Amino acid sequence: MRRADQHPSRRTFLDVTGAVMAVGLAAGCTADSPGSSGSPSQDGRAPATGAAPGAVSATGRHQAGITLPRPAQPHLLAVVADLGARGAPGPLLAELGQTIRTLTAGSDPRLLGLAPGDLTVTVGVGPRLVRTAGAALPGTTDLPRFSRERITPQARGGDLLLQVCASDALLLPVAAAALLDRAGDRVRERWRQSAHRGTDVPVGDDLTAPRNPLGFIDGIVGPHTGPEQQRDLWLAGPPAVAGGTIAVLRRMELDLPRFAALSVAEQEAVFGRRRATGVPLSGGSAAAGPELGAKTPDGRYLVPATAHARRAHATAVGVGLMLRRSYSIDQPAPGLLFISFQNDLRTFTATLTHMETSDALLPFTTTTASATFLILPGFDAQRPLGAGLFG
Q1: Tens-place pLDDT, residues 263-278
Q2: pLDDT per residue over 79-89, tens digit each?
Q3: How many C-beta atoms surround the C-beta of residue 22 within 10 A?
């Protein structure tokens, strides 16, 4: 497998797909259209049984791969690319949408006989392309630079995101190869990252969340209900982007040995939660979230002032909720791929700015890739992918 910050040619990638399939990939994703069996409800809560993954419709108001199914598929492959001078975003996106429909329907011969199962593909466009459609549109702002970054120019930004998710890891390189084959020489790959999602743990209120590479349950707080998603996740307008959202990708190396050297109590102080259960140090349930004002009899905060649960808390920052997905990675170094979805980029930037001042978790991280994308609204046979934005 090539390193994530390399960008092999499309033909080279096609040549090595068979070898990659033999090894398999690790990662995880979600789909926001219900499947045909064991499908979750629209509020994003976990299904009652562990049924085999059903098909996920590629069409609808929102693209698949964001909110459902819950739990998320365990495997993810993110491909970040640039649009070349010969590529026009409108036709390219429409063709990618057609390919996504054939892949998820199982009718594309490039699946090589594999059943699509719960395969989802989510497409986003970077700020440079969004600005060509309208300077005032959501998604035109690049991510600022933050501390604790070691990012090469190749691994910062990008014009196109292909997020491929499935329960079957063999599908990821095959689906990515089909999409890149359809794009042809109109795109140039910047970097890619495969990752895997930890086993989901019940956290209360019929919700589950996985453990991250540091051993803690991750992604407990977020816009899980329909009203929360309408308020904080989905873009409401203008019409060209309504039903879309804003994604942030951050690949991070983790200093696992140094974190593991801490006592369990010290690790819990870093996160502000119990490692075993995800319950906040202020008590209550994991799903209820921390009580930031709770103190000991001698006046100390139960959730420490530098704890991640406090520094990243939406109320403490003064922003909305973000739907957070963290996936473990093995290459190019042990760490995680962080993905957040929100309808305002400031939700992420203000949160990370607030964390940078004193979050106890950040010293264990180094970011090596970073990008933001406007996740396009959903599409169907009459409304091609990206048509509202690029015609």
Answers
A1: 999 999 999 999 999 9
A2: 999 999 877 99
A3: 8
